[in-house]
Every structure is written in C-alpha cells, then in structure tokens.
Amino acid sequence: MKTIKKTIAEVARELEGAANILILSHENPDGDAIGSSIGLALGLREFGKNVVLANSTGVPERISWLEGAKEFVTQLPPLRGFDTILLLDCAERERTGFDLSGVPEERFISIDHHPNTVGVGRKVLIDTQAAATGELVLEILLEMAVRVDAKIATALYVALHTDTGGFNYSNTSRMTHMSASILIDRGVDPAAVHKHLFGNERFERVALLGKVLSTLTMELDGRVATCVVTMEMLDEVGASPEDSDDFVNYPRSIRGVEVAALLKEREEGVFRVSLRANTGVNLSLVAKKLGGGGHKKAAGATITATSLEEAKKIILASLEEALGGAAS
Ligand code: AMP
Ligand code: MN
Ligand code: MN
After folding, report:
1. Residue 131 in contact with residue 160, Cβ under 8 Å?
2. Which of 274, 284, 290 to mutate to test the pocket of ligand 1 (most atoms within 8 A of CB)?
3. Where are the alpha helices (DSSP H) in the chain?
4. Model confidence over 211-220: pLDDT tens digits?
C-alpha cells in the first residue's frame, strides 16, 4: 500500500510537469477505460494541460452520455506534439489497438489495475487492489489538488460502477465505497447514473438477450455455463456487438456454476470470449494462454477458429485444465 501511495505521488508529479498529454485506453473500452480517461482529462485541463482523448474503438453507446464522450478520436493523432502518452486501464501498447511499437518507453505513463501485465512507461502505476482504474485516477487528482467537479466525479463514478458491477463484485472494497462517497460529495447523482447505465436499454439489446439466452448450455458437469452471440443474431434484431457486453452475467448467475463463458462471433473465424468466475480459478491466466488477459475473476480474449463449435472446444479445454479435478 505504501509503495502505491508513493507511486501515485510520483505519477502526479510527472503529470504536473507534462504539457501535452495524449490519453489512450484499451480497445473495446468499458466504463472504466472511458470514465477514467474523461475524469483524468478534465482534471488535467483544470491544471492548464493540453489533453487529447483517443480510443481505437470509440465510446460505447451505453456511456456516450458522459460529458466529454464526444471528444474521443478513433485515429491515433500525430504523436510529435505529445510529451506524455498515458495508458489507462491497460499498461501495454498492444492493448490500445493502435500501433505504438516504435514509440520510446519514456513517452508513456501507465495507470492500471490488471494483474499479469508488464507495464510500459517512465512511470508505471499498477494497483491490483484497486477495483477500477477510476479509483487510482481519483487519488492522482486529489494528490494534485485538482478541484474535482461534478463532471469529473460522474466520469469516475461510472468507472467504479462498471468495474464493480454496481458495487457488487468481490473487488468492491472499503476503498471503493470511500472513493464513491467522495465522488457523491462532489456532485454525482447515483440514481441518475444507474438509470443512464441500466434503465435506458434499446429494444434491440433486450431482443438480443432473448436470442442469446436460448443458446445457454451447461458444460463440464455443470461447472461451466456458456452462451453464444453470432453475427446472424445481431443482424436479426439489429443489435451491435457491444450490446451483449454484460450478458455473461446470466450464465454466471446459475447455481453451482464456477465459470461462465460468453462467446461472441466478431467476424468470420474470429471470436471474443468473456470469462467470469464464481470461485478461485484464475481466469487471468486462462485468458493469457488464449492470447488475452484480464483479472482473476473477469477476463477475456480474442481467438481464431474455423467455427463457433471449434472456438467453444478450445475454450472449454482451457477451462477444464484450469478447473482441474477438484471442485472448489
Ligand atoms: P470483458 O469480458 O471483455 O468484459 O473483459 C473482462 C476483463 O478482461 C476486462 O478487465 C478486460 O480489460 C480484460 N480483457 C478482455 N480482453 C482482453 C484481452 N484481449 N487482453 C487483455 N485483457 C483483456
Ligand atoms: Mn476495462
Ligand atoms: Mn478496469
């Protein structure tokens, strides 16, 4: 904890010294990637910094109502003008979906909370105890004595809310609630945020849920539950790939299930898998072996396979290996 506090102070000092800052986050961003990016950008501007926001896949519709969401560019701007490139909610160049291979390490600072990640930059802040990157961003802004206003606070609250499943997952800590309490104090309206996130569904998304739930299967003696999303299903109801983002919570909620897997066909032969654990199995390692990454209880990867069936086989084989014989 002490070293994290020290690193937070060091990152704050680095940012105080920076002038032109590009903020990047992981591709297929979630509320934490976008919320922490916006929160930090607005905060740094209070400090007179020039800040540009980019994300290779852009802002998902669910959080497009956040102030600042329209600012994101999806093309990498020319890097010459930036003394600092911040990686948020990821700590590796590749996770941004941009080609940053030739950029010197000293230009980067990474702020993240994922385990099993290397970290790139002249300063690397990876705190796996933090429930969300937004929690770390709040600490940095407070350390810099930035006036956290309602816009900043709402972006960071969305970050916390998303990564903790509305303050419900096991990563939710006393610290998470303390951070939320500070954010509410600065003007967040929790009920309004919840309504934006979960009380404002498009018809197409709920229609897609119906199709996806009809694919539910139990595997490995009931230890694993799966659902699939095909491109055909998206077409049939007019939904977009991101519409299924949190559907994995349905197979996860089944009694006795240790791991839930949601398979999403992205293009011919390319599948994304979202993995969620209810027990101690380490999905971060499972996902890493599949070429992805994530947390112990929530991880993902993109895999190639000739068919959905083959993709499922690959994933189930990895899960079988990870779960081993003993039920936990
Ligand atoms: P998702 O299932 O897409 O919601 O992802 C769950 C968690 O795993 C999130 O924290 C993601 O950032 C992380 N994750 C998903 N896909 C990847 C990947 N390809 N590489 C590294 N981390 C990932
Ligand atoms: Mn994320
Ligand atoms: Mn996160």
Report:
1. yes
2. 274
3. 2-17, 31-46, 133-143, 150-163, 174-185, 190-198, 203-213, 231-237, 249-252, 283-289, 308-323
4. 999 999 999 9
Q: Which ligand is nearest to the CA of 242?
A: 1
- Taking every pair of Cα atoms in the chain, the longest distance, rounded to a whole number of angstroms, is 58
Kindly report the CATH class assigned to 5-198.
alpha beta
Q: So what's the pLDDT on residue 325?
A: 65
Q: Name residue 23's beta-bridge partners.
A: 53, 86
Q: How far apart are CA 126 and CA 128, in angstroms?
A: 6
SS3 for 143?
helix
Tell me the CA distances in angstroms from 99 to 27, 30, 44, 96, 250, one per residue in order. Answer: 12, 20, 25, 8, 35
Residues with CB under 6 A from ligand 1: 26, 95, 274, 292-295, 298-302
Give the chain's mean pLDDT: 96
Q: Note the pTM of the prediction, 2 decimals.
A: 0.92
pLDDT of residue 242: 87
Q: Beta 108-112 vs 84-88: how paired, if at all? A: parallel
Please give the Cα distance from 61 to 216 (Å, whole number).
26
Confidence of residue 2 (pLDDT cuts 50, 70, 90): confident
Which pLDDT belongs to residue 328?
Answer: 47
How many whole angstroms from 289 Cα to the centroid of ligand 1?
13
- The 3-state DSSP class for residue 72 equals coil
Q: Provide mean pLDDT across the span 90-109.
A: 98
| Burial label, 68 (beta-carbon count in 10 A; 0-12, 13-18, 19+) | buried
Sorting pLDDT into bands at 50, 70 and 90, what band is 292? very high
Q: How far apart are CA 81 and CA 65, in angstroms?
A: 29
Q: Where are the domains of the chain?
A: 5-198, 203-323
Q: Which CATH architecture has domain 203-323?
A: Roll (3.10)
- How many angstroms does the Cα of residue 282 sit away from the middle of ligand 3? 17
Contact 220, 316 (CB under 8 A): yes
